[in-house]
Design goal:
The complex is a heterodimer.
Chain A lengths: L1 E5 L3 E2 L5 E3 L2 E3 L5 E2 L2 H12 L3 E8 L4 H9 L4 E6 L14 H14 L4 E5 L10 H9 L3 E11 L2 E7 L3 E8 L2 E5 L11 H9 L3 E4 L7 E6 L10 E2 L5 H14 L4
Chain B lengths: L4 E2 L9 H5 L5 E4 L2 E4 L18 E2 L14 E5 L9 H12 L2 E6 L6 H7 L3 E8 L2 H12 L3 E5 L3 H13 L3 E5 L1 E4 L6 E7 L2 E7 L6 E5 L16 E9 L5 E8 L11 E5 L6 H14 L2 E4 L1 H5 L19 E5 L5 H7 L4 E5 L13 E3 L3 H10 L1
Helix pairs in contact in B: 4-5, 6-9
Classes of the chains: A alpha/beta, B alpha/beta.
């Protein structure tokens, strides 16, 4: 069985620079989202040969190597120059991403395609279902676990208020929940192998975006009261706090 | 490729078009507007020019917002729990559109939907998955936009409908508004500690927007409003391809995005036992529990509790218990109506956005609150 895990390397939050009027993550390292790391582990659990696929610039290679260290055996980077967006990592158009990935996957089909249910920065949960629709595949979203039964997959899914069991014919697409079991920490040897492993880079033609965007630091920041509740002891402080919360009708 | 042409003899270089362009694709050079290659041809600048100096060749043949009259609100359960119809009502009144509540079955209270802001209830009739019925109906009726609540499985359905419609899709947004000239909708969402303004380009098909629960809130209510109910025969659409075998309620902690009160776990709590006491307090208050990333990295909280700006929340109360207040975490909680910082750390950053500050060790405060 061949599995492809689609990933979206996102900047390490702590390295994103904030200033009024702009959010700059261009210098930040890229990493896999927890749900994407779990997807690599889930694909391996199916006994599949796992490749990782991403539409990203060269800055995303570190995240692809992270996936290789977790057990993926191949990594393909669909090159993304992205002339339009000032901050391509913000990626306002999930449909565009899904179209680029689907064009590649039509020529390089897999029995199972996995995505993180939500990327590390935006968490819109959109690319997976869009990719499934473009490829005409059945989809299970928020997958916590999956097992193979003959020619179908049986997926346990978290749909918010309910846990749903979904049966899908193969080939199929799964979006993996952030609550799915995380992968084991890679060994030093696996990390070293991943550092040396070749990455395949493919030039692709991206469709024009249907929407675009711009990052702004909010000019509408709240104006906090910043009142320190002066009290002689912790009990008195708690009574003061509860009184304030009742006055403000939040409790 | 620029699709807008500047008639240089008419252009006065006033800059109105620069402000109107949602793509920052126009600048005034030497007193004349210049269209950059990044122009998408959306046409938002054309009506902004007081001199009529901007021309969009072939614009007559292009479907624009002005040719569509309805804003749809997709309500798969036939009711409006948050007031999203009121959000659509505001947009519709600003742009002179009608609001249709779109329901895929016959289980709805039409008067309740009219009171909330709908002008019409559009009942989809056909066989197959609701999202495919919605997409086919939208192809027939061509609304301006389809709004829906970003809620669990509905998001996946809206994403799939967007593909079927070849439509722009803005997911989990916090607010939606018109761009100048009412030629495009702008959807805003928090990301990476800031506010990320997405500009949705009106294309030949409707724009799909899902709104986070706090973005879909509206108190609009007018019991005197009335409207019409229309049944739309959509026919049969293809099955979804996957089959639900079993569905059971999922017992889990209330997600922070849906809770009125959220308790934040921070590194100052120091131990798993202290975090367990926070969970008990949350149970008693009917609150959700979230965490700062540092707390998860210290093993005090599971990764799924982590709140960062990509998953911003806006509860009535955010009570940060030993939360240090990283920029990403503060970005995620700053829209709360009330923020309380409980900390003994003089360098705590959550206090910068807090309304009330309690300067005692957070574990002692949790225990005292449990004892009240």
């Amino acid at each position: 069985m061949r599995a492809v895990v689609c990933v979206r390397p996102v900047p390490v939050q702590a390295q994103v620079v904030f200033s009024m009027g702009a959010v700059d993550g261009t210098e930040a390292e890229r990493q896999l989202a927890p749900a994407e790391a779990a997807a690599v582990a889930m694909a391996r659990g199916l006994g599949a040969e796992v490749s990782v696929l991403s539409w990203t610039g060269p800055e995303g290679e570190a995240a692809l190597r992270q996936a290789l260290a977790l057990g993926a055996t191949g990594a393909v980077r669909l090159h993304r120059p992205d002339p339009l967006a000032e901050e391509p990592w913000l990626d306002p158009d999930p449909g565009r991403t899904a179209r680029v990935l689907s064009a590649y996957l039509r020529d390089h089909p897999a029995e199972v395609i996995l995505c993180g249910a939500a990327s590390g920065d935006q968490g819109r949960a959109a690319v997976g279902p869009m990719l499934a629709e473009l490829l005409g595949l059945p989809v299970a979203t928020g997958v916590l676990s999956v097992r193979r039964e003959a020619e179908s997959l049986l997926a346990e899914c978290d749909h918010g208020a309910s846990r749903v069991t979904v049966r899908l014919g193969i080939p199929a697409l799964l979006t993996v929940s952030v609550d799915a079991p995380p992968p084991a920490r890679p060994s030093v040897m696996a990390l070293a192998r991943a550092m040396r492993a070749p990455l395949e880079t493919v030039e692709v033609e991206a469709p024009p975006p249907l929407l675009t965007g711009h990052a702004l630091v909010s000019a509408e920041r709240r104006r906090p009261l910043r009142e320190t509740l002066e009290a002689s002891g912790v009990e008195e402080a708690c009574h003061l706090l509860m009184a304030r919360l009742r006055e403000r009708r939040v409790l | 490729m620029a699709e807008i042409e500047v008639v240089a003899s008419r252009c006065t270089g006033c800059g109105e078009c620069v402000a109107a362009c949602p793509f920052w694709a126009i600048e005034v050079v030497g007193g004349v507007a210049v269209i950059a290659e990044s122009c998408t041809g959306c046409g938002a600048c054309v009506p902004s020019c007081p001199e009529g100096a901007l021309v969009q060749p072939g614009a007559e043949a292009r479907s624009t917002l002005s040719g569509r009259r309805a804003l749809w609100v997709y309500l798969p359960e036939g009711r409006d729990p948050t007031g999203i119809l009121g959000v659509a009502r505001t947009l519709a009144d600003e742009g002179d559109y009608q609001v249709a509540a779109v329901v895929p079955g016959n289980s709805f209270d039409s008067q309740a939907l009219f009171s909330r802001g709908a002008d019409q209830v559009l009942v989809l009739e056909g066989e197959g998955p609701a999202f495919r019925l919605l997409a086919r109906a939208a192809t027939q009726e061509n609304p301006v936009a389809i709004l829906a609540l970003a809620d669990g499985e509905r998001e996946a359905e809206m994403a799939r409908a967007a593909v079927l419609l070849e439509a722009a899709y803005a997911a989990r947004t916090e607010a939606v508004e018109w761009a100048p000239g009412h030629q495009a909708l702008r959807a805003v969402r928090a990301v990476a500690g800031g506010r990320f303004r997405q500009t949705v380009v009106p294309a030949r098909q409707p724009v799909l927007v899902t709104l986070a629960p706090w973005g879909a809130r509206s108190t609009f209510q007018d019991r005197g409003r009335s409207g019409s109910v229309r049944h739309l025969e959509v026919g049969a659409v293809a099955p979804a391809g996957e089959e639900t075998v079993e569905k059971a309620p999922l017992e889990k902690i209330i997600p922070p995005g849906r809770a009125r009160v959220v308790l934040g776990v921070g590194v100052e709590l120091e131990s798993a036992e202290a975090v367990a006491e926070v969970v008990e307090l949350a149970r008693r208050w009917g609150a959700a529990v979230a965490a700062e990333k540092e707390a998860a990295e210290a093993g005090l909280a599971p990764a799924e509790w982590v709140l960062e700006s990509g998953a911003a929340i806006a509860p009535a109360l955010y009570l940060g218990l030993g939360v240090r207040g990283s920029p990403a975490h503060n970005g995620a909680v700053q829209k709360s109506q009330l923020v309380v910082a409980v900390t003994a750390d003089p360098d705590n950053n959550l206090v910068q956005i807090a309304d009330y500050v309690v300067r005692f060790p957070p574990r002692e405060v949790v225990r005292a609150l449990l004892a009240l």
